[in-house]
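I would like you to sit down with the record closing this message with an eye to the fold:
=====
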Amino acid sequence: MALSLYVDTARWRAHQKSVIDQFPGLVPVCKGNGYGFGHERLADETTRFGSDMLAVGTIYEAARIKDWFSGDLLVLTPFRRGEEPVPLPDRVVRSVSSVDGVFALVGARVVIECMSSMKRHGVKEEELGQLHAAIEDVRLEGFALHLPLDRTDGSDAVEEVIGWMDRLRAARLPLHTMFVSHLRAQELTRLQQQFPQTRFRARIGTRLWLGDHEATEYRGAVLDVTRVSKGDRFGYRQQKAASDGWLVVVAGGTSHGVGLEAPKALHGVMPRAKGVARAGLATVNRNLSPFVWDGKQRWFAEPPHMQVSILFVPSDAQEPQVGAELVAHLRHTTTQFDRIVDR
């Protein structure tokens, strides 16, 4: 019995096609845990819909994925001089975010990242003049801009890209390809119309693989159910049951990512109030689990174990049965399933 990821395959692939149709030349992204699906599965999907390139997060991911995908692999983490050498085939394209990095990659295929308003990494405007000599000894695949998701200052993503196109053109650098992230389809169309000699390629991960929330569902199998009365002690810490009910052991623990939460950016009063409430409940060992039973998200009886979680289901709910599956609201990018089930 397992923590399973169920995929409505036809619906999932229909969503993929809708995204691909909106973004001609799209470069699928497969990084981290493969957006919850795994590297091999996303490599297979990319091969199926015919993309010539797949973007990965690191050189280590590229070393693994190269055996599953036969096209070009774009490594998104920028090259740094002195990094550990990893044997990679010639079809791997390295991102570079510094002039020094370009000089160090003699003979390599490279994409040069420009410093966007993200201010994460990239070549700066004042460094563009130094690129002429640097790109003579590499195979330049294009430039790239990684843009922010939110623009709270009201700025325009298209104008930011246009600004960089103008700077690169003024520096007399080749503009045959520009890789971009976090643009809408209409914005990409505007850019393509304004710069018809440049091929714009959107690098897309979340929207492509996770854009249809109804296409996937996590479920954890019930492994054991034990009746408890108010005051009964249980678990590693021998806490007391707050009321009558059941202790439900369900597949899915910390090794799967259950109970591990990445920080989130909160906007507005209500999300912040909910965050404060959750933090307050946690101080008295009240932590809401991601598992749903009988129409409600259930509380952890104690912190999740490595492979399983123990939930408390009160006696006024339906009694769970061994073998039943509980829907789990889990974040794809931090979850590792036991099995994937296509249906």
